[in-house]
Amino acid sequence: MRAIEAGILICTECHELNRQETDSEEQTCTRCGAMVHPRRPNSILRTWALLLTAAILYIPANVLPIMTVSSLGQGDPSTIMSGVIQLVQHGMFPIAAVVFVASILVPTFKLVGIALLLFSVQRHQPLSARQRIIMYRFIEFIGRWSMLDIFVIAILVAVVNFGRLASIEANLGAVAFASVVILTMLAAVTFDPRLIWDNTESDDDHE
Amino acid sequence: MPDPVDAPGLSELPLDDLVACHECDLLMRKPKLALGEKAQCPRCGYELYAHRHNVVERSLALVIAALLLYVPANFLPIMQLNLLGQSSEDTVWSGVQGLFDTGMEGVAVVVFLCSMGIPLLKLICQLLVLLSIRWDIGRSYGLLLYRIYHHLRDWGMLEVYLMGVLVAIVKLADMASITVGLGLVCFISLLLVQVWLEVVMSPHQIWQALSGEDIHAGD
Predict the structure, then answer these.
(1) Are residues A147 and A113 in the same domain?
(2) Which residue, A29, A93, B102, B184, has fewest beta-carbon neighbours within 10 Å?
(3) Alpha helices, H only, chain B
(4) Which residues in B lie closer than 8 A to residue A174 (C-beta atoms)?
(5) ipTM above 0.90 for this complex
(6) B180 in contact with A at a CB cutoff of 8 Å?
(7) How far apart are CA B184 and CA B188, in angstroms?
(8) Min CA distance, B62 vs chain A (Å)?
(9) pLDDT digit string (tens) for A115-143?
C-alpha cells in the first residue's frame, strides 16, 4: 500500500509523515515546516524543461574549446574530446579513461537516461520499476563527477602561469559544459522518484 | 526488515507507528531498531533510517575537526610546479582567482561554490544544528538550518575536486617537475572527515532530536 492511498504525505525534507488535509491547498510539514505535496508539483514538466536546456547546451559544450594552452606565444585551443585524445597520445590510458568517462560518457548517459526515465514514467513503458530505480540512483550518484573537467581547468589555470613561457586560459566551452552539468543535476533533483512506482502496482514489484 | 502491510486498518494506525519510504512511497509498520541497526525499504532497498549511538557527541567532534582542517586545505599549496627555474603554487583558492582573472567569472563562481563555499556552509549548518540540540536553544532555527543543509548536500564536491587534482598532476607530470604540498594532505583529511561525518550523523535521529519528539534520540 502506498502512503498516498492512505491519505498520508511524506515530507520531502525531513521524511516526517503528515495526514493529508483535504480542505487546504498548501500544507506544511508539522515537524520542519517545509511544504508537503503528495508528489512534487509539475515534476515531469520541470524535469523535461531542464533536460532540454541541457541538451541544447550540450552541443557548444562539446564543439567549443574549453581551454587554450599557450606556450612561447603559440596558442593551442582544445575541446573536451581533443583533451582525451591528447592524453591517449601521451600514453596515459588510465587517466584518459577517467576523463573520457567523466566528461563524455556520463553527461551523454545522463541526458539519455533521464529522458528514458521520463518517457517510461509517462508511457508506463519500456522499463520495469526495478530497472528504473537502479537507473535513477545511478544518475543521481554519478552526476557530480562530470564536474571533474571544470576542476582540472581551474587547477591548470592557476598552476601553469609563467607569462609568455607557458600559460593556460579557460574558454567559452567550459561555461557551456558547467551549465550542462548543473542543469542535469537539477533535473535529477526535480524528478520525483515516487512516480516510478506509481503506475507499477503489479505483483513482481512487491517482493 | 519492516513488513509492508496491506491491511485496510493500516491508514487508521497512529502516524508514530508508521513509516513510509521516501523514494517509493511504500507504507509500512515502523520497526523498532536496536543500536547500530538500520531499516531498509523491502520494495526498493532505500535506507529508511539507522539507529546509532552518541550521534551528537561524535558528530560534534568530527565537525570541529573538519572546520579546523578547512582553512589549511583551501589556502595551503596543493602542489608546486617548477618550469625552467620558475616556480608557481596552486591552492584551491588560487584556482578560483585564476579563472576569475581570465574573464571566466561564471565558471569561477561555480568552482568556488562546489569546492569551497558549499562545503563550508554545510559544515557550519551541521555545527549549529548540533549545538542547538546539545544546548537546547533555538530549535526552530536548527530545523531551518538542517533543511538548508539537506538542500546543499549534493552540491559540495570535494571528492570530485580531489580527482581533478590527480588528473592535473598526471597531465603536468611530463611537462614540468611537481612537488606535492601540505595543502593536499589537509584536503584529503578534510574529505575523509566529512565522509565519516555523513555516515555518523544519522538524519532520522537528528530530526527527532531537533523537534523534541525524543529527547534521547541523539544520545
Answers:
(1) yes
(2) A93
(3) 55-75, 92-101, 105-112, 118-135, 139-152, 158-173, 182-200, 203-211
(4) 104, 107
(5) no
(6) no
(7) 6
(8) 22
(9) 988 888 887 666 677 788 888 888 888 88
Chain A residues lying within 8 Å of B106, measured CB to CB: 175, 178
Question: Are residues A93 and A174 both part of a single domain?
Answer: yes
Residues A2 and A64 both lie in one domain: no
Interface test with B, best of A10, A14, A145, A172 (most B CBs within 10 A): A14
What domain range includes position A30?
Answer: 1-38
Burial class (CB in 10 A: 0-12, 13-18, 19+), B93: middle
Cβ pair A174, A153 in contact under 8 A:
yes
The reported pLDDT for the residue numbered B127 is 93
Give the per-residue pLDDT at B113: 92
Instruction: Please tell me if residue B110 touches chain A, with a CB cutoff of 8 Å.
Output: yes
Which whole number is the average pLDDT over B96-121? 89
Residues A9 and A72 in one domain: no
Model pLDDT for residues A141-158, shown as the tens digit of each residue: 888 888 888 999 888 888
B98 contacts in A (CB within 8 Å)? 154, 157-158, 161
Of the partner residues B27, B42, B102, the one whose CB lies closest to the CB of residue A170: B102
> Is the pLDDT score of B1 beyond 80?
no
